[in-house]
Amino acid sequence: MAGMIVVAGAGTTLARDAAAEVTMVSAQGWELFSDGRLGGFANYTRGDAFPLSLVDAGGSVIQAPFGGGIGTNVDSNSIADPANPTEQRKLESMRVRSGFLSNIFGFGVRTALTPWTKVSGYIQFWANIESNGERKYVTMPVDVRQGFVRVDGLWGSVTVGRMLTLFSRGAADIDFLYGHGYGVGFPAAGVGSGTAAGHVGTGVLGPGFASGVIYYSPVLAGLQINVGLFDPVALQGAWDRTKLLRPESEITYDRALGARARLHLFVNGGYQKVYRINEPDSTSSAAYGVGYGLRAEVGGFHLGLAGHWGQGLGLTYALETTEAAYDSSTLHRLRKSDGYYAQAQYALRRFDFNAGIGISRVKPLGEETQIINGVPTVVPADGAPSGPSMTRQSLIKYQLGISAAVVYHVSPALHLDVDYFRANFRWQLGEKEDVNFVSAGMTLTW
Asked: Would you say residue 2 lies in a domain?
């Protein structure tokens, strides 16, 4: 099998360190190299549409689900029954789309500074194959996903630019290596455009990309410490102001256990202070998270286990601007969430058989009394009636994903995939949505 491109995140991130690459030119001490992939998948979706809101006899909304799920009440691919307007609609659609990764073209240059030090530069472009909103006349954008310079020496390495972040990187690597590196999984974009999510949102929290600086220590007895500072992320509409760069780190331990076994352990985390616009620094909060897990390989059997926990994270990627990360009250209280993921793979010479299960959960907030503009104010608990209409807001409770895939490696470069994904969504006040996805396609890698 060809060398792997290792990815992480919401179906939209990639780290090139472990990628296969092709040297294109080598002259006068410089090398020009390239890596990437091309492909596509036929995808069939069938299941429930987003749950309907409950209305009273006068037509007022008395209960409404929010956060999570796929599709909406007015989704163009939802099927309504005119005889039962209060019955939850159904989703059914087919698309030819990008997989867990889109079409990718990356290239870089490198040269030696000294016998012990080298410098390299790398830039990477992503482009989806499916049109947004099923409109073939829409121009397809190109996303400059990565671009950085890196210096490597006996002391470790330093990378500066736009790159994969560190928090939750290990869990997404598991999803790529043992689950959906050549497949689809959960196509979260629906009728929109975008890479699929694999298990991101159902047990895996995507790390994403950001501009920043990372120091990678030398590997000593299998142990490596990575520390980064990244451009901060504002939680729009809630905590719109930041002051300092966001620190993230990851510690990994990788060791061969005999000729046919290997163990890889990881723990990572991130922290960011957030503030309100036009309010003093004393009015602040903090988003943070911790991720952990392992990869174990014995012969052709591979197992990955991962988990994460934190505050203000959301369901799909770290520091998500969504109701799953903070509530809609005037306080915009940051929610706590967690996730757990298990992925197994049995790899033969030509075939991979993959199966996984993961769950992401959001913790409801209780009632609080806070001083707002000098006045004690009761902020209701999640699920309690609020607002002038006394609507009960039903927060997403969990998202559960179950996956299976078969990959046939025609050659080290060409890979065929058939995969199935079952997504179960449950809300705090009893709403539910169950959707099935079947995908098949091919990927060319270099």
From this structure: no
Dihedral of CA atoms 368, 63, 391, 278 in degrees, nearest 10, equals 60
Provide, rounded to the nearest whole percent, the portion of the chain with pLDDT above 70: 90
* Domain-embedded: residue 15: no
**Residues β-bridged to residue 444:** 38, 414
Number of structural domains in the chain: 1
> Please, are residues 206 and 318 in contact by the beta-carbon 8 Å criterion?
yes
Q: Is 374 left (phi over 0), alpha (psi -120 to 50) or beta?
A: left
Supply the DSSP string of 230-269, one letter for each residue: E----BTTTB-B--SPEEEEEEEEEEE-SSSEEEEEEEEE
Give residue 22's pLDDT band: very low, low, confident or very high (50, 70, 90): very high
| pLDDT tens column, 171-188 | 999 999 999 999 999 997
Is residue 293 within 8 A of residue 304, CB to CB? The reply is yes
pLDDT of residue 73: 43
The CATH number that applies at residue 205 is 2.40.160.10
In-domain check, residue 4? no
For residue 137, count other CB atoms closer than 10 A to its CB: 5
Burial of 223 per CB tally in 10 Å (0-12, 13-18, 19+): middle
In this structure, is residue 3 part of a structural domain?
Answer: no
Range(s) of the domain holding residue 30: 22-445
Tokens 């002391």 label which residue? 155
Phi/psi for 177 (5° steps) reads -70, -40
Establish how many alpha carbons lie within 13 A of residue 170's alpha carbon, considering only the half-sphere containing its beta carbon.
29
Is residue 399 scored above 80 in pLDDT? yes
Q: Which residues pair with 303 in a beta bridge?
A: 296, 344
Instruction: Give the per-residue pLDDT at 201.
Output: 94
